[in-house]
Amino acid sequence: MAPVTLRFDAGVALAGEGALQIAVDLFAPPAGVTPRALLWCLPGGNMNRRYYDLMPPAESGGAGDEGRGLRRSYRNAPADSTREVTRAPAVVGAAQAATSALAADSAHIESDTSFSFARTMASHGYVVAAVDYLGLGDSSRPTDGWQCTPDTLTAINRHVHETLMARLRDGTAHPQLRGLPGLVSIGVGHSMGAMMTILQQAAHAPHAGIVLLGFSTRGLPEYLPPQLQGLTDPLAARPLLLDVAKSMYGGQAYPVIHAARAGNRELFGSTRADPRGVAALKAATDCLLPIPASLSMVPGNVAPEAASIAVPVFLGVGGRDMVGPVHQVPTAFTGASDITLLVLPETGHSHFLFATRGTLFRRLTQWAASAVLR
Description:
This protein is of the alpha/beta class. It has helices at 64-68, 94-110, 117-123, 150-170, 192-204, 234-237, 241-248, 264-268, 275-281, 290-297, 303-308, 357-372, and strands spanning 4-9, 21-27, 38-42, 71-73, 84-86, 127-131, 185-190, 209-213, 313-318, 339-344. Helix 7 packs across helix 10.
């Protein structure tokens, strides 16, 4: 089933900007299945929300873009507002839209959905929300992109998550879902998105458990700029991040990363990654938000916040990931009530591209049932 695309008010006012909106794709379980929980999914750096819904394009053996051609758009509006089906770039009539929606759903059924975290987890009974950060994907892009700081993104994530949870609980979020008053939330983040998940959980504790993929508080010391080298207190780095980010990315607030650094093919799209997944990843590739990305590189980046996490934590890393020694990753979560570490063999940083993704999805489902939803 194709997702419903929601657009929420960002809930913050930024200098020089008008109203800001955040785009969220919402995936529902099959009809008749009572949802287990919401999975609130934040993508990594250089990625938008489509990272969680990787669909191979037709030329790589999947229906991909044909299935993506039409998405149901249910705007963030009062419950009595018209629910509309839209098609970009042209608006189609209601009858044609309904027919097209059925065709799109049929195309998805016939396509390879095995790379799609969102569709797989929805099939297991979860509501899945894939989120675009402010400045990326179909969310609003501030003129001054340097306002997209970790603190601002965390405030926005809180507002949008609370708004979505309220609508899921009262039954106005998705045409297929009735009210879910007892619904709980599980945070999911990949790479920089895992860092943002930690910041959101430490600040507001919205989730009953969190899933952190391809992340550690080790940072990326091998790529650290000179201004941040030698700092022993990660909190001391945070006031420096704006100037560091401007220097690193040539003053570009929304840089597009073209050239792969040495080792990136091994991490993201080596011969071990499925070519269909690599092709699907292109639709999810976006600009980078320099300040959050710079924070993620700092050794001890969000270690203070990680130590404060009290809920169950699922850590998924690849055997060929960029997290450092894998068995040191759990040591940051000293307050967690439960810690599960899954190391995926022969798997790079973008886990969904590799053959082990099925193992990851299965283990994650088991963990949620036993550690969070028991």
